[in-house]
Write a structure and sequence with these properties.
The protein has about 260 residues and is an alpha+beta fold. The chain contains 2 helices and 18 strands. It has helices spanning about 5-35, 130-140, and strands spanning about 40-50, 60-65, 70-75, 80-90, 90-100, 105, 110, 125-130, 150-155, 175-180, 185, 190, 195, 200, 215-220, 230-235, 240-245, 250-255. A hairpin with a 5-residue loop joins strand 2 (about 60-65) and strand 3 (about 70-75). It is globular. The model is unreliable at about 10-35 (pLDDT under 50).
């Protein structure tokens, strides 16, 4: 029969092989995450602003989720509500979500970061998030009951070269449609009206196209793994599309300047 020392040596070899296998697995997992964030990068910058009040939250948390395994990070807004980070060129950001004390957690749209990044007045990634009290108010006045397990999609359809600093922001008379896999979802959009002094009017009813406010909302959108696409039409004009990643219980607002806007 084998001697005790030989049994001990065999046991050591088994333990060594198990440890080696574990290290290889861990390094492989880490490698996937690191591989997602290596290579040339570009700057993504933006800011967070409150819907209707325009307050900019300092210390807000921005969670960034990419499509590649491990491509995720968190950044924080500065004292003016602005933020900035680096992201691999050519890679998609599926979703960016802003959370802050007193605000309803809000996500933005899907983007692909090009070589020039997302910077500057007409290319930065802006969040327009309602405060908690504003969100509760909107839930009571919008025409459909909002299901907390569904996703709710908001955007602003604008002329070219429009940002959140412009007022009003909308391209009136436009029709917005939410697509899934290239086909209309048949989820009816609700168009915000506009008051005489140029403010968003959530009490308007019966609009079939955008007002000068430009706001559109699709309530109770089914969550799904792949993004939805927002397309806009109006005679004589061409618009950019926007994409949104819908997760359960999430409010998504694709705000200017990255929402659907007139080309040119």
């Amino acid at each position: 029969p084998p001697q005790p020392r030989r049994w001990t040596n065999r046991l050591k070899m088994v333990v060594l092989n198990v440890r080696t296998w574990a290290v290889v697995v861990v390094l492989g997992m880490l490698g996937q995450g690191l591989a997602a964030l290596v290579g040339p990068t570009a700057t993504v910058s933006g800011y967070a602003r409150a819907f209707m009040t325009n307050d900019r939250p300092a210390g807000a948390t921005i969670d960034v989720q990419g499509r590649e395994p491990g491509s995720r990070m968190t950044v924080t807004t500065n004292s003016s509500g602005s933020y900035e980070f680096q992201w691999p060129v050519g890679q998609e950001i599926l979703g960016m979500t802003m959370s802050a004390k007193g605000f309803h957690t809000t996500a933005g749209g899907v983007v692909v970061v090009g070589r020039t990044g997302l910077v500057g007045r007409l290319n930065e990634y802006a969040f327009q998030a309602p405060k908690d009290a504003t969100y509760i108010f909107l839930k009571t006045v919008l025409p459909a009951k909002m299901n907390d397990s569904a996703c709710h999609v908001v955007t602003t359809v604008t002329p070219a070269n429009t940002t959140l600093d412009d007022s009003p922001q909308g391209e009136p008379g436009s029709v917005a449609t939410l697509l899934a896999d290239g086909k209309p979802t048949h989820i009816k959009p609700y168009y915000f009206g506009i008051t005489k002094d140029g403010k968003t009017n959530p009490f308007s009813r019966g609009l079939n196209t955008t007002s000068r406010d430009g706001g559109v909302v699709w309530m109770n959108v089914p969550p799904r793994l792949e993004p939805y696409t927002i397309v806009v039409t109006k005679d004589g004009l061409t618009f950019t599309n926007a994409s949104v990643w819908c997760r359960a219980g999430l409010l998504v607002n694709v705000a200017p300047p990255l929402g659907p806007h007139v080309v040119g």
